[in-house]
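User: Please run a holo structure prediction.
Assistant: Happy to. Please share the sequence and the ligand.
User: Here you go; the ligand is beta-D-glucopyranose.
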Amino acid sequence: MRIFASKERRILSVGQIAPLFPNSKLIRMTLPSLIRILRDAVPALVAVFLISGCVNPIDPLGPIGKGPEPRPPLVAPQLGEKFAWGFSSSSYQYEDPAVKPGDPDYFQTDWDIFVDQDKAPPKGNALYSWTHFDKDLEALKKSGVTHYRFSIEWARVEPRPGVYNEVAIRRYADMARQLKEAGIEPIVCLWHFTFPSWLYDKKKPGQSNWLHPLARERWNAYVERMVRATAPYTKYYAPQNEPNGQITTAYIVGQWPPGMDLAFGHYWKAIDASTGMFRDAASRIKAIKPSAMVVSVEALPWWERAPLDPGGLIYNTMIHGNVDHLDRIYDVCDILGINYYYSQAPGPISLLAEPYRRGHNFTMMGWRINPEGLYKEIQRVAKRYGKPMMITENGIATTDDAKRIEYMQNHLAAIGRAIRDGYDVRGYLSWSLADNYEWHYGYKAFFGLSHMNPETYDREPKPSMAWYKKIIKDHPRVNSVRSILPTKKSD
Ligand code: BGC
């Protein structure tokens, strides 16, 4: 019996494998049938791979909903309006914990559990943005931005279920107030990847975070408190950051908490739970502050067909990853946020090769640079959902700041072209203000337009900061963004 065989050569046989498990009767008994099943399944699996794209196709440029018409109306850009220029950041990637174990305010996130289990690099104090938010504020004021997206650490606010840290709640509200008073519109994000550790079930990972029995009830109470506290100073709320990306990485790729591989059932349950929680948050926000704007923030890379994915199985899976979450919440949003970094032709080889790709057209994480992908993504979101958009994250991990400027300019030019072509893009938030903790890359990916001086905690600007400041100054309105042109074409 062969597992992998060619006409000439037998590669592996039961006879070769069974002696590896001399004491296991069970394995000796079941191995032959297992191998038979695998062998018989190979042609079927290959066939599914080749044709599956046709079985579950999706028209990403099509309008949302079952029937082809009517399409949602395209919203025309408000050319005279001020364009929102800003930065995005997140609590876990920027803040220091500032409390030690034993302190009543001590908290942990599910990501901290992952760090303790050596499944993620240590985070330490990041940019000290909890104890030194003044340093962020100072850098933001100097940069000339009009908007700043920061997130709230749920675990810090609610270190144990139903127990709140009132000082932390006031402090977050104060951040929004200070921004507002500095003429910078806060965009408050209520969840950016991390959950309180009490929503992590180590014994039953499948009942963690979105899927924990307490999640929805606790989320609603948390949202209520944070929105009430920040509402006097906040117009924009983003209930969740990239739930689509987090759910895929957590339940399919197994890289983020709770670390489950190819758990498609859980993937769908998490989509259900997170979209339900998003909708709950959106209605609470509107009830507390009817004039508030609800912003969705989704990871929206541009996918292309790859030659080694002839049936489009991987392509379609990726497109589903872009839209499955958004399809269920776009109707309760005022602005659709696009986080765009790269394009990819997702085939078996390119996906494996991604982290190792280097050169002018790739970032230091191996992501392919393609400003045209951003243009197409804007087009797709507009045609599918028909709502105003904002680029809520865009940036590049690099140590070469000239490359960062080129990247930003070319992506801004793509936005300018989209506006010229009639698409309603209202703002651009760069990722990010300063180099920070980049999840499973730790401190080895440099996305900042500044970096922290470890002695003074000052955010020291890179040349790209001065460049961005000038862009902001020269292009205050939607109208003027149309004139941003690309630099020389990337090779
Ligand atoms: C996330 C950020 C992350 C950035 C760069 C986005 O997916 O929202 O947390 O740092 O991409 O990878």
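The two ends are 51 Å apart (CA to CA).
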